[in-house]
Amino acid sequence: MATATMLHPDIEQLDRDDLRAIQHRKLAALGARLAQSPEWVAHFATAGIHPRDLADPQALAGVPFLDKATLRARYPFPLLGEPVSKVTRFCATSGTTGLPVLFGYTDHDLNELLAKQVARQLYCHGLRAGDRGYNGFGFGLWVGGLAYDLGMAKLGMVNFPVGPGRSELVVEWLRDMALDFASVSPVFLATLVRVAREKGIDPRTDWTLRHAVIGGQSVSRAFRDELEAEMPAGFKTYNTYGTTEAGGPVVAVACEHSHDRDEMHLINEDTVLTEILDPDTFRPVGPGEVGEIVVTTLDKQASPVVRWRTRDLVRVSDRPYDCACGRQGMMTIGRIIGRSDDMLKVRGVIVYPSQIEDVIAATKGTVKEAWQIYVDSLDQAPGRMSVAVEYERSYNGVPDDLAASIGRDLTSRLGLKVPVECHPEGTLPRYEAKAQRVQLRT
Ligand SMILES: [Zn+2]
To answer: pLDDT tens-digit profile of 14-32?
Structure first.
């Protein structure tokens, strides 16, 4: 059994039953804590149960789901679990619709829990004390930048917390500071490669990057392969997944083995209990099936969640407990394939934006970070959908041929005829944070 990449082998090597035993013990303790909070008691009572019922692990399946509407109704400090005076810091979800929802973190939540969760992930990727990291995740209310600051500090890494943007500076620092690691959005990493080349910097020979964690959005294998080909030999981009509600970007990461299968481990299962449920029946799905990620935080003091519906859909691995890294109690899941509320139903055909991205990323000559979906209504059931892409400056062919080729691939992938337009590089919008791929065009 390989423990060389495990920061916490006492946990990471456990088999499924032993890991579940930890979860059950912590669920009972969580129930006892929530029983002190009238708000939480009232929330459980809507299903005729009490937080103390969590002493029986079977009771979790009867706890009402949490979602944004439930939290918004309890503005401004929903289900906090601790007095406001015990909160060190608030973070918030991006809030693309309506007011952001605040999530509190106590000193323990930040410096014990979150730091340890992220340090475990960094160690799993092969990073060690003294390695140099460029933290390109966002700061402010977003938890991403903060989480990687804490994780790098816990592991003893050297941190350059630039945040998103400042590409002209970053491409030089990656060379001059000989940085080993980057936490960055995938689209911005692609932008950095382009900016470097424009400045006469060759990432393959001038940079020493070994690892990048790409978060904020999920990218296809083709996109990752292409990025890795532009980087120093041996460079790997690791997918990561998490949410503010779960306590940060700490739900799932790829190990060196699952990376090749485009899968991630639920690597913090001793502190974040994850259910993968059929979004219609809410029954757990089996190997190879698609379900929605539902999380329960086991150790978080402020703003704990019980059965938070992420709306993110994943496919459970065909062999979820069989990874060569030795983390055999930590399920492997595929990358996020879409959100249950991003899903489009175009003339009766189900379409996820990620399927369109896969086709674009796999087509030579396209600009990977710039593409849009246009729909004639934003109600998730548009009558018309079209796709816009860009061709690279170096593309020698006929743009109409590129559009036709993508159109054919989309038809075979989706079972739907989709008009495709092809523009010169630089025409379509760029996004530094979460991309708004679906746009209204009537
Ligand atoms: Zn593994």
So the answer is: 999 999 999 999 999 999 9
